[in-house]
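Hi there,

I know you've been waiting on this one. I reran it after we fixed the sequence typo, so this is the corrected version. Both the input and the resulting structure follow.
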Amino acid sequence: MPTITTRTDQEASVPAPAAALVDLLNSRAYAIHADKLDNPELVTDLLRPFGQEDGEPSPRRLDLVRALRADLMDLVAAGDPADAAQDWAAFTGRTSSVTFQQDFSTPGHVRLRQVSGDPVVGGITLDVAALVTAGTWSRLRICANDVCRRVFYDTTRSRTRRWHSYEICGNRNNVAAYRARTARSSATPDAQH
């Protein structure tokens, strides 16, 4: 069975809703990666955390998930909360067919139980709501390496992580910046003589 992602030690502390959303966002076609929602061997496992049962999802469900994924990518890419207002409105509109009801059947606990709409869309909606409610939505980031653009969950206390992997993208960027500075500094004295 194919693996969806490989997690680093730092990503081991990522909450389950965030990990599922990161996998969903990274299922898009980007860099050298094909769209994983097009791969029947991956799609069921990818959507299982959101409520997908065994078997391939319907084309209608895949269309809904692709649209939600695009809305969520716009939200992750929006740097300013004011810029994100329109993207949140789009996400809200796309999930409006999903309704939930409070379930108080377990003493001392309340959970939302989906009563209408696509169950996978409901699962995605609940995971997004969990991150927003916990104040951790902003920890979903896009790798600063323009060639990579992988989504990751920032586990740092300062919330300033820029690379999905420092060893891969961060180190490459720093080496490239160092070489550019070195090339400029070595070219400058020659230009003065």
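Quick highlight: The mean pLDDT is 85.

Best,
R. S.
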